[in-house]
Amino acid sequence: MNSLRSLLVPHRIVMMVLFAAFVLWCALSMRWDWLPKYLPLAIEGIGNTLLLLAVSLVVGFLLAVPIGFAQAFGPFYLAWPARIFCTVIRGTPLLLQIWLIYYGLGSLFPQIEGIRDSVFWPYLRSAWPYAFVALTLSVAGYEGEVMRGALKGVNRGQLEAARAFGMPRFMLFRRVWLPLAIRDVLPTLGGEAVLQLKATPLVATITIVEIYSVASRVRQDTFIVYEPLLLLAVVYMIIAAILSSAFKFVENQVPSRR
Amino acid sequence: MVSDGAAVPKAIMVNDLHKSFGTLEVLKGVSLVAEKGDVVAIIGGSGSGKSTMLRCINFLETPSSGEISITGEVIEMKPDGSPHNQKQIEKMRSRVAMVFQSFNLWSHRTILENMIEVPVHVLKVPKAEAIAKARELLARVGLADKEDSYPAFLSGGQQQRAAIARALAVDPEVMLFDEPTSALDPELVGEVLGVIRDLAAEGRTMILVTHEMKFAREVANKIVYLYEGRIEEHGTPAEIFGAPKSERLKQFLQSVT
Q: Which of A173, A233, B52, B130 is the most exposed place for a label (fewest CB within 10 A)?
């Protein structure tokens, strides 16, 4: 294994030993006795973080494609709303958006006659729909801007070739235009996905139990401050590492030469 | 050949084609007839409208006015020249294959995937059949060992040969070549011309925009000389190159040889 051999050079070995010593010191001299009690909650929190991340990334990206396309090629009555949407989303803090949606939208619904008796009420009463909507719109806004440039930047000749062979418009978009555009911005999308991961703790402010709020709970209950935060950092780092290697993997599916 | 010549529809008929970009009139009424098996070379200086003319034939450029029919089927046009029926255009395009100056292979697909893309997804040929045919064609253009490569890893000449194979994979009734060797290094031109020469020899109907005068003379049976959006002179290679009548054509031939 080449990659293994490249790890076994003196300076890397020293770094690894130092890191292992640090981990060992953390494990032995810090307080971890709270962990067993809060582990189930932490696991639930991680699950919720991943759920929020996955849904907002997938749905947000599905929205971002038409938003980007409308911005770049749409008629003015589609291009302008799309442009305004991206400007507003990118120009205001996500925390503000979450609160506006939760306290704004969330307080409008109860005023609708009879909604408390409807089947939707249990959902509308919880914070989840507002968290999903706020995070998804955020992804749609940022990625909409990325996709605008990506769709615009695709090599015209390759699109023309698809047209010249009689490809119907939608097939051309699905099989040539969009894949070429996405491939160009995969590194950007990967970076944005990691940023989105680190934006998810904001929904802790509207009572969602994700991993960040679990760490806060431990601190409030036990007055142990540092250890939960350390664990939190490790959790985010692991998810971020998985995310970026997933993007790297997809990127490597098509070898490119630049 | 069918003896009853009148019953065979012309492969391509272009009648009084006009094309303007804004106020600039690039084509001022050009006409062209290609019988089945004809190899027509369109020559002319830069800006003469030869590429535009070729691109109008499959509506990559929308003509401003005129009439185009492919294998006897008239393409319906609105009064402003834009296609009347997108479905008809798409169907026509899948029978008229194009080879571009800059190859335009799809860079996110391997060479083999490039070959089968249109047959499988547009023409609905079974995948196994399309793959078998693609391999056969790749072998013919000398790229049998490149089917799993991505276009970016091929030389220009290889890419253009792959692009020609991609065009052949749709079993086209007419092939359009838009300056197929202009983007190639001089030492790679020969291999591409060789492939086109073979196609001409087997009776493919082709329209060819080219700067390679020697090649046009050797391969084409009809030459069209365009000057500022009009057909200045047309005829057999012997007439055009051997005994040019127009003063402009004489000058043009002198300047390129």
A: A233
